[in-house]
Amino acid sequence: MDTIYFLLPQACILLLAADALTNVLVLNHVLTHYSRRERLLLLARESIFALFSMFALYEAALGTLYVLKTPLCAIQVVGGIAVTLTGMRAILNLSRENSWKGFTSPSALSLVTPIALPLMIGPSWLAACCILIGKRYSFASVSLILVLSWILISLATIILQVFVGGGKEKAKVLLATQTVLGLFATIVGTQLLMSGLQLAFL
């Protein structure tokens, strides 16, 4: 039970930083021409791709931060700013759905994976991952956190994009969900930013 209480908050930070949940409307726009079954299959494939990408990006970020010898306070400040800006973008709905028009056709999605990167685990997720690295947990703990966050991100994304009804009502539900998740992401990002500033100056 103590392990769950330790892992869940860290996984939730990565969950809130996931671009798939702060770009809900954009992802829905990308999948406009797909049936419910096709969406499920595509998102399942993207989720598997995202799992391997998570560990690859974690190792890349770990090596980069080790070489740069970046202090934890700097990691938390930058990560907090990135997550906060992502949350504010989601609240204000500043994402440009039209910029993804090239990926809305089945032929475009069959050869590339535009959802897992950058929508599912984009810059804000990487920033949150760097904060996780700065805490210097064991690799076993980090692996459990990454897998748990992957499960949460995949389930939330599939539920929102596949099982929520279509039409204008779906757009309203997704907009409301994006706004609420953006609010929580902003709160978490601000908390990380303040923690980084406290480490730097206190």
UniProtKB/TrEMBL annotation:
**GO CC term, one of those recorded:** plasma membrane
Q: Which key words are in the record?
A: Cell membrane, Membrane, Transmembrane, Transmembrane helix
Q: Which Pfam families match?
A: MarC
Q: Where in or outside the cell?
A: Cell membrane
The UniProt transmembrane annotation reads 6-27, 48-68, 74-94, 115-134, 140-164, 173-194
The annotated topology with respect to the bilayer is: Multi-pass membrane protein
Primary place of residence?
A: membrane
Q: Which InterPro entries match?
A: Multi_antbiot-R_MarC (IPR002771)
Protein family per UniProt: Belongs to the UPF0056 (MarC) family.
Q: What is this protein called?
A: UPF0056 membrane protein
Q: Species name for this entry?
A: Chlamydia poikilotherma
Classification lineage? Bacteria, Pseudomonadati, Chlamydiota, Chlamydiia, Chlamydiales
